Amino acid sequence: MIKPIPSLCTGCRICEIICSLTHESFIAPKQSRIRIRSNWPEEEKINLCVACEPKPCIDACPEVALSWDGYLRISESKCTGCFLCKEACPYGGIQTEKSKGFPFFCDTCLGEFQCVKWCPTKAVLKVE
Q1: Whole-prediction pTM value?
Q2: Does 39 lie in the same domain as 8?
Q3: What's the pLDDT tens digit per position in 106-127?
């Protein structure tokens, strides 16, 4: 999974750009699975799924639309867009965007870890 290190983040948002480009095939930071929140003058806040245990997002879903198989997965056909999973996430790792109608989150680019590869300051790291 990915470990954020906010103290190293400069807020350049390259991670948001590469994430949205990888998943959407165009640059759309609002559709990025990782989000950088400016907290100036404090350090940046990096919001993404960190594969926490237990997984309150899965427990919060009344439709059993979320599952875990090494990555958080969603069944779009089961999801009603209630976003209770987003409210339950203590890390701000579940994102929403009106045009999608359902939550989305980091899947490590299916093991390619694009944000880790592209981050110039190593503010996100791959961890086993």
Answers
A1: 0.89
A2: yes
A3: 999 989 999 999 999 999 999 9
pLDDT per position as a tens digit, 50-72: 999 999 999 999 999 999 998 89
Residue with tokens 């999974």: 1
The answer on 25 and 4 residing in a single domain is yes
How do beta strands 45-47 and 72-74 pair? Answer: unpaired
Residues 1 and 35 both lie in one domain: yes
Host domain of residue 24: 1-48+106-128
- Interatomic CA distance for residues 108 and 76, integer angstroms: 19
Instruction: Say which amino acid occupies 1.
Output: M
User: What H or E segment, with its residue span, contains residue 109?
Assistant: helix 108-111
Rounded to 10 degrees, the C-alpha dihedral 60/99/70/116 comes to -120
